[in-house]
Amino acid sequence: MAERLREGVPRRRRGARSAQPAHPLPKPLRGFDLPARGRLRPQRTLHVVNDIANAPKTTIPITPKLVAEHGLKPDEYQRILDLLGREPSITELGIFSAMWNEHCSYKSSKIHLRTLPTTGPRVVHGPGENAGVVDIGDGEVVVFKMESHNHPSFIEPYQGATTGVGGILRDVFTMGARPIAALNALRFGEPSHPKTRHLVGGVVAGIGGYGNSFGVPTVGGEVNFHRRYNGNILVNAFAAGIAKADGIFLSKATGVGMPVVYLGSKTGRDGIHGASMASAEFDDASEEKRPTVQVGDPFSEKLLLEACLELMESGAVIAIQDMGAAGLTCSAVEMGAKGDLGIRLDLDAVPTREAAMTAYEMMLSESQERMLMVLKPEMRAEAEAIFRKWGLDFAVVGETTDDLRFRVFHRGELEADLPIKKLGDDAPQYDRPHTHRPPPKPLALTDVPPPNDYGNALLRLLGSPDLSSRRWVWEQYDHLVGGDTMQRPGGDAAVVRVGEGGKALAFTLDVTPRYCAADPFEGGKQAVAESWRNLTAVGAEPLAITDNLNFGNPEKPEIMGEFVDAIRGIGEACRALAYPVVSGNVSLYNETNGVGIPPTPAIGGVGLMPDHTAMATVGFKADGELILLVGAGHAALGQSLYLREILGREEGAPPPVDLAAEKRNGDFVRAAIRARQVTAVHDLSDGGLLVALAEMAMAGNRGASVKAPVADAETHAWLFAEDQARYLLTAPATALPALEAVAAKAGVPLAAIGRVGGEDLVVDGKLGISVAKLREAHEYWFPAYMAGAA
Amino acid sequence: MKSAVILFPGSNRDRDMVSALTKITGRKPLVVWHADTDLPPVDLIVLPGGFSYGDYLRCGAIAARSPVMRAVAARAADGVAVLGVCNGFQILCEAGLLPGVLMRNATLKFACHDVALRVETQSSVFTSQYRKGEIVRFPIAHGEGNYRCDDETLRRLRGEDRVAFRYADEDGGPNGAIDAIAGILSERRNVLGLMPHPENAIEPAQGGTDGRRLFESVVGALSVAA
């Protein structure tokens, strides 16, 4: 116990304490001693008298109710008492609640996340930094991450989405990278739910409002609708930036007595407890949590970006960390703990928006567009001049120390005095119990009838909420700023060039929640495989991923089981495809009134291409060219969109993912693109082959004619099944022999199924529809729905 | 040709403009900070797109009062070519270098996509290399591009051949601008403001090269003058 108590005692006081041996050390307050029995007060008095004369003054009694309101369980509070050897002050309690909530501590997920592959020949920094860093050659690196802003976006969609975008951009530029692309993965409730339209409108406007003003092109993403998101929407924001390989900045502080500098916007009372809010379920009163949502200011963020990059260039920065969740608390603790240093903060120096803010409020504020930096003291004047030029606050608010304490002073009072390493290292960690459902049985083909009218079925699919054109969404995003957008939204992956040498990066966000709900393991694999395939389909070499793992309440064993299985699937696919995880975010407790979302592990993939002029796009290019199908299988109708949208059933096993076939087929396609042997490429996913053909026809404004090479009873499966590892290509007939030779040698199934041409999409004996009519169906739903007409 | 791009807090297509000017003129433009009071001698001054001061007040209103804008106005009065794109157009209007104002898009939504534009006049330093009546494609990316002016101003703009570009799509344009106006010239025809982004349409990889000739027109006019 003496050892434990010492953790609560600042070093310089030890001598003083040992000089008073007559006072017996108090027994730390136990969880079960808490006020139910009214013993709190005497206990606390004992501490003040006997324990540490310079422990923070406790003016507010720490009741079990207060502990619970801070999202801390009784055993977690006990851990704090054990760690400190005394009762925490209210500010300290706030700091613990910020550091130990699910959002910041990853306490339920950490042991499982450790199983993911995070290294590779190109990986410079994996998880643990603000964002992942991957080498892209020529002395350059790509820095990227995806993060959720689900809870705030449900409560206040515009501001929730803006601050989600702002946060992820800061994660990227705090490392020294200039953002070059933003994407977002959005899930909403069913369209008929009374809140859905309002949430879609608010989130899309918020993403645009922030990204457009900041000046990053928002180049892609995904939007899904399902009733299981009625009470919990998902807003997952991705950003990527480019930096010089030798110009990466980390949060690890070095040097004792170095100034800790506050940069950016002022601190207000917004967002207090935002991270704790994001670590709990919703109920009917969740709208009352609106004050915990922060307010975004893209103009300040733009200034902060330019000022930070200029400052980094100047050589003045030792360490830098953005203030995200739990603001000043997390950023200061992280910089100190990583550098094995203490941090002393003087809150009187913190620029505030409002008068009379308490230490508690300042430590927990999530005001946006702020950074904390450890500065080279000799560069202070230059650094301050840069921030003044950009009209931003610059204030020295503390210094690094050698005592491993996190000490916070305000108005001459010590408000917190905590062991800095233990705040993070000793956070609770759980191996929560998990149960596993047996995977569902595959649906027999005979159990899925063909449509009465193939043409009608195709039009209904193309016009369904999950497959209809997202033009209404992405035209509200500036996807061109920067002048480097080589492939705009609407293709398999967005492509943004890097410099003038032809190099470009491809980006895609993917997950198929209905697959994950049916079988989290196969669904996790599929999400990774689809992202790999989408990058391949534009001609990029998939480099690495960031994952954004959205799940329900991990305290329920079946939800924890979904999480564990999905991670297992993601890990298996990442290993098989040499496609490591370099950053990520976990969002749990996506539940309302006990109903959780389907498991939604969104995968953000980044790929590299040496020459964007060889990039592939989905549109048909020329009449007479052959349409080639790469890959095999046409049996996976379980969990297909055909089954759901046309037959109204959500059953069966999702398509299994054969990772070896995925790799073989993808490598073949990528090589063909780079050799300029093919003229259009599209991966097969939602809706299967027929939807892919229609999308290629609409994008190229040309028809096509294909013939099903299977028995009549299987034609609907051939057209609608969602078997994995498949692509459609087009190529001039003269290219076929060479492609066939390579495919045969590599064991890649390749079949010519038809030709491009005409104004209609024709499937021999089954349907013939004009491309114009396809487009009408495809473009109708989204704008009509948002206008209240659909 | 020497050019300068003015940088305001919140400008965000300054880099696009610098890149386009470098590629087309073969010379990197000067980047001039908004707080500077003097402007080195240049042949073309560009106010780039963005959200100066966040557009929290009327867009362009604060930037129009930046110290550097006095120098820009003085050069414009001397006949130097001044181009304002998107937020730059809004700033030129707020600074009184062009008439009228840009209001919120009629759809109330930000819009980013290619638009068809009709070149309405060849007689300016910016449009000489286009044909009058030619349809070109530039992208737009704005939430406040709805050009408005009083009847007298509109009559003069038309009568003096000062409408440089009109939206040529069937639906009358993306933002509800009066008379489908996308870009206008000053009385002396040396100041052009337009909402669409020629600087994002200069290479095939960007999806089109129609914007190139706007800059080539300026280069050409200057070499003739020299």
List the helices and strands and how they pair.
The complex is a heterodimer of chains A (790) and B (226).
Chain A: H1 2-6, H2 11-18, H3 40-50, H4 64-69, H5 74-84, H6 90-100, H7 102-105, H8 110-113, E1 123-125, E2 132-135, E3 140-148, H9 150-155, H10 157-173, E4 178-188, H11 196-214, E5 218-225, E6 234-244, E7 259-264, H12 274-277, H13 298-314, E8 317-322, H14 327-338, E9 342-346, H15 359-364, E10 370-375, H16 380-389, E11 393-401, E12 405-410, E13 413-419, H17 420-425, H18 454-462, H19 471-474, E14 485-487, E15 494-497, E16 504-510, H20 513-518, H21 520-538, E17 541-550, H22 557-576, E18 581-587, E19 591-592, E20 595-596, E21 600-609, E22 626-630, H23 641-646, H24 659-674, E23 680-683, H25 688-700, E24 704-706, H26 715-720, E25 727-731, H27 736-746, E26 750-756, E27 760-763, E28 767-770, H28 771-786
Parallel strand pairs in A: 4-5, 9-12, 17-18, 24-27
Antiparallel strand pairs in A: 1-2, 2-3, 3-6, 4-6, 7-10, 7-11, 8-10, 9-11, 12-13, 14-15, 15-16, 16-21, 17-21, 19-20, 22-25, 22-26, 23-25, 24-26, 27-28
Chain B: E1 3-7, H1 14-25, E2 30-33, E3 44-47, H2 68-77, E4 81-85, H3 87-94, E5 101-103, E6 111-119, E7 135-142, E8 146-148, H4 151-159, E9 163-167, E10 181-185, E11 191-194, H5 212-225
Parallel strand pairs in B: 1-2, 1-3, 3-4, 4-11
Antiparallel strand pairs in B: 5-8, 6-7, 6-9, 9-10, 10-11
Helix pairs in contact in B: 1-5
Outline of chain A, from the CA principal axes?
Answer: globular
Identify the CATH architecture of chain B: 3-Layer(aba) Sandwich
* CATH homologous superfamily heading of chain B: Class I glutamine amidotransferase (GATase) domain
Q: Terminal Cα separation of chain B, in Å?
A: 10 Å
Widest beta sheet: strand line-up of chain B: 2-1-3-4-11-10-9-6-7
| Beta-strand percentage range of chain A | 15-25%
Assign the CATH topology of chain B: Rossmann fold
Mean pLDDT of chain B: 96
Which percent range fits the helix content of chain A? 25-40%
The low-confidence runs of chain B, each spanning 5 or more residues with pLDDT under 50, are none
Question: How many discrete structural domains of chain B?
Answer: 1
Count of alpha and pi helical runs of chain A: 28
The N- to C-terminal Cα distance of chain A equals: 67 Å
Question: Tell me about the biggest sheet of chain A?
Answer: 7 strands, mixed
